[in-house]
Amino acid sequence: MSDRPACRLLDITRLVSRVGRGPMTGIDRVEAAYLDRLRHEDVPLFLLCRTAYGFLLLRGSEAEYVFAALGAPETLPSPGLINRLRGRTSPRLRLEAGLRTRALARVPGGGLVWMLARRLPRPISYINVGQSSLKQKNLQRLRRVPGLRITVMLHDTIPLDLPDYAGIGEPERFRAAFDAVLRNADLILCNSAATMADIGRHAGAQHPPCLVAHLGVDLPRPDAHAIPPDLDLMPDYFVTLGTIEPRKNHALLLDAWEEIIARMGPEAAPRLLIIGHRGWKNEAVFHRLDSAPYMGKVVHELSDLSDPAVSALLAGAHALLMPSFAEGFGLPPLEAMALGTRVIAAPLPVYGEFLGNSVIYADPTDSYDWVNKILELTGGGRGQERAETSDKDHPALPSWEAHFNLVLSAV
């Protein structure tokens, strides 16, 4: 941006939609990081939230209220008479009700241009990192606000690359949002060079300027006391982390563990912890998780752990296993590296960009390759293995400070 903005306008629609839905996803964390950082900058911050009843404009200081709601959704107020009469009492609606009482202004969709032009000083830097509110009509309205510049972060193009693995209707929705960004954004933020290359491949020659800004890695804060006390972690265990969807390739890990159990027996086999909520289009895997005889004994499915518990389990694992067919940024391997935990992963471009040869790579289509590399890690003493891991030269982990130093000079 050639001129310093008079204010920044951060879209928090995604964060508001996630309240009460358990641990935050990677994109949620990015939006939360932006909200936390921008509220402390010397450029005035305002917040925009799209709700069922239109748009809310809020002061940046309301970030404190949003973070409090995310941490304790049970403290939120009633969702309002209309929603109560309709039987709609979700945490999201309750948070929206609370934000309406705190808003500087609220308008139906058609009043967005008037509200922003009347209420905000110009030039305005609109920032959307949550990939919400990216419909063509919303971005066109923003374009009509005098002196407003649109910056959008695209985290990946996976719904276009692997449409068969996406949720129902997701490839079409993403394509519409992607095209709207290409037509209306002034700048696209990319979390990696791999993502920027994917955007260029789908966009062709004509697209807005892109800026690669690696996301920061928050230092995990393990809390062993948060681990369920009845969880069987002996003799040794591995972790896989992420939504249980076809792209994450949990089927390969179940195949690998069946082979490991056949070789070693259920008592001696290392444990596998599958951490994440169930997603979509994965009925065959869900059936195995529900009915396989090794479930709850050798393999454990864990869906409602706190972040400190997840970090503690990751810190104590022999390795993090990531056989995904595609990733946008790949945050879990970076968090594992920060904890000194080994990573076995599919050879994806984004992993090569960040982690180089510090990761053990395995073919995501070959379960025997994974079996052999997993068993190689369990062959030696744990203390010796940890010492070897800590002595390795790991790449420097990306930081939020470096990310914002780059981004805020442009927006």
Automatic annotation (TrEMBL):
The keyword Secreted does not apply. It comes from the Bacteria. InterPro entries: Glyco_trans_1. The keyword Transferase applies. Residues 233-378 form the Glycosyl transferase family domain. It holds the Pfam family Glycos_transf_1. Keywords: Transferase. This is Glycosyltransferase family 4 protein. The lineage of its organism: Bacteria, Pseudomonadati, Pseudomonadota, Alphaproteobacteria, Rhodobacterales.
